[in-house]
Write a structure and sequence with these properties.
By secondary structure, this protein is α/β, with parallel strands linked by helices. The chain has two domains: 263 residues, Aldolase class I (TIM Barrel, Alpha-Beta Barrel), CATH 3.20.20.70; 92 residues, no CATH class. The chain has 21 helices and twelve strands. The strands form two sheets. It has an eight-stranded parallel barrel with strand order 1-2-7-8-9-10-11-12, surrounded by five helices. It has a three-stranded antiparallel β-sheet with strand order 4-5-6, with no helix packed on it. Helix 2 links the parallel strand 1 and strand 2. Helix 15 runs antiparallel to helix 16. The longest helix has 35 residues. 40% of the residues are buried. It binds flavin mononucleotide. Flavin mononucleotide binds next to helix 11. Its cofactor is FMN. InterPro entries: Aldolase_TIM, DUS-like_FMN-bd, tRNA-DUS-like, tRNA_hU_synthase_CS. It catalyses: a 5,6-dihydrouridine in mRNA + NADP(+) = a uridine in mRNA + NADPH + H(+); a 5,6-dihydrouridine in mRNA + NAD(+) = a uridine in mRNA + NADH + H(+).
Length: 476
């Protein structure tokens, strides 16, 4: 068959594909390579970074309906951003007036124009609509999270729990379609995971595409699967077919590594777009096509990120967290970053002398004074909180290991230790015992974890305690 006939046939088939209408201010997910929603890693400067390197659309981090409800929208003249703020409740229903407002969500109306999708965490149609109304005039689409497996989401019936209550999920999507689409003229979409069997997934997807949504993203892992497990793509073509029958755009997610990789996968599986999370978190230049330079060295990406973070006065804790994702754990810079408490210190460590003056201004604007006693005390307590959290995480990990060992018919760590034969009975020589004791003198588990490479940590436990330590630093 000649090239011309083939392309005519392709054209004819393409024109037959049904497409639901895209609302006037909304966006068609077809042909897009997009940044995934990521709590903490998908804050404003990360989204600007992804856009800078060519992401077609960017999802914001999941924001729970009840944390949005009650916020006040305001325009920040300095950073040129729109912010939704509220007083932190601090455990009481009426917090004191002098408590500083917390920023719950932010968008950059110019730099994210037409490209920003707000993701909502919800398990209630009325609350979903109430929260969505607050942002709908400033974003390009509203996406419902039906894939988060974390207990903070599922315990309330949100995230992946919605996959088991499809009628509730459909009611949420229908309520958003009915109340948000006509008034704000943007589209509604959903992000799901695959279910255990193709039949279960098929039944779910058939219901979802009939709700009036314009897009469906499928994370090709089941709810219990860990992020390290390879994505399963066996159900993808079936999901795509159901989406296409209904005219809904189908976006694939899971182990997509770059724009070029996305293009290959889109053509292999016939889906409409691809979403990238982890690889973008490590190096957002993955959105740049190979023909345009491809993935950039981390030093360049980090410099851009620091600039964007300073542009929007990003909370320093979040900036530092992201830097720890972007800077390879093996590099000396990674270790030097750990004690940094200000943008100025970060710029010094990174050797960005040209950004130093601006960094000092930003530090001052956001109230960071690295020399102040209060700052030093805060840092000290942050470090303590981090260590405590890391210890707790290790204990939890130990409990989990025990549970899985017991479930698999083995023993708990304590029993294993009690049942251990003396070293001499296990043929360990005195010299080896000595060596073992020497090895135990190496740094603490926390220090070990901190020194592990970020991107190729040797054990999950070390990675977990590093993350927890960082979480402690950030949350404080
Ligand atoms: C740090 C982090 C935060 C995430 N937060 C969210 C979220 O807020 N909403 C959501 O739907 N998925 C969230 N996810 C899941 C990702 O969007 C994505 O589905 C998953 O990581 C698989 O994509 P990947 O294989 O490219 O990493 C998060 C993932 C990571 C790594």
């Amino acid at each position: 068959m000649s090239q011309m006939i083939r392309s005519l046939l392709r054209g004819a088939m393409a024109s037959e594909i049904k497409k639901v209408p895209i609302p006037r201010k909304g966006v068609d997910y077809r042909g897009k390579v997009v940044l995934a929603p990521m709590v903490r890693s998908g804050e404003l400067p990360s989204r600007l970074l992804a856009l800078h390197y060519g992401a077609d659309l960017v999802w914001g981090p999941e924001t729970v309906d009840r944390s949005m409800i009650g916020t006040t929208r305001r325009y920040n003249e300095i950073t040129k951003t729109i912010e939704w703020t509220r007083k932190p409740s601090q455990g009481s229903k009426s917090p004191p007036d002098d408590v500083k407002d917390s920023i719950i969500y932010r968008v950059h109306p110019d730099r994210e124009a037409g490209k920003h999708i707000f993701q909502i965490g919800t398990s209630n149609p009325e609350k979903a609509v109430e929260a969505a109304r607050l942002v709908a005039g400033d974003v390009t689409g509203i996406d419902v999270n039906a894939g988060c497996p974390k207990p903070f989401s599922t315990h309330d019936g949100m995230g992946a729990a919605l996959l088991r209550t499809p009628d509730k999920l459909c009611a949420i999507l229908e309520a958003l379609v009915k109340n948000i689409v006509p008034e704000y003229e943007i589209g509604i979409s959903v992000k799901i995971r695959i279910l255990e069997t193709p039949a279960e997934t098929e039944a779910l997807v058939r219901k979802l595409v009939a709700t009036g949504i314009t897009g469906l993203t499928v994370h090709c892992r089941t709810t219990p699967m860990r992020p390290r497990e390879r994505a399963i793509r066996g159900q993808l073509r079936m999901i795509r077919d159901i989406c296409h029958e209904a005219g809904v755009a189908c976006v694939m997610n899971g182990d997509v590594e770059s724009r070029d990789h996305a293009a290959t996968l889109i053509s292999e599986f016939g889906v409409d777009g691809a979403m990238i999370a982890t690889c973008a978190e490590k190096n957002s230049s993955c959105f740049r096509a190979g023909s345009e330079g491809g993935t950039a060295p981390w030093e360049q990406v980090v410099e851009k990120y620091v600039e964007f973070a300073m542009d929007v006065h990003n909370k320093f804790g979040n900036t530092k967290y992201l830097l720890c994702q972007l800077v390879p754990g093996k590099s000396a810079t990674y270790r030097l970053l750990q004690p940094c408490k200000s943008y100025a210190a970060v710029c010094e460590v990174l050797g960005h002398a040209h950004l130093l003056e601006r960094a000092r201004e930003v530090d001052q604007a956001i109230g960071i004074d690295p020399e102040s006693k209060a700052q030093q005390a805060a840092d000290k307590s942050a470090a303590k909180a981090g260590q405590k959290a890391a210890r707790k995480k290790q204990e939890q990990q130990q409990k989990q290991n025990n549970a899985s060992a017991l479930a698999a018919g083995g023993n708990s760590a304590r029993e294993r230790a009690n049942n251990k034969k003396p070293l001499s009975e296990r043929g360990v020589t005195a010299q080896k015992q000595q060596q073992g004791q020497e090895n135990q003198k190496s740094p603490s588990p926390i220090a070990d974890a901190m020194l592990q490479p970020t991107h190729d940590a040797t054990t999950a436990a070390a990675e977990a305690s590093k993350v927890t330590l960082l979480e402690g630093i950030i949350s404080s």
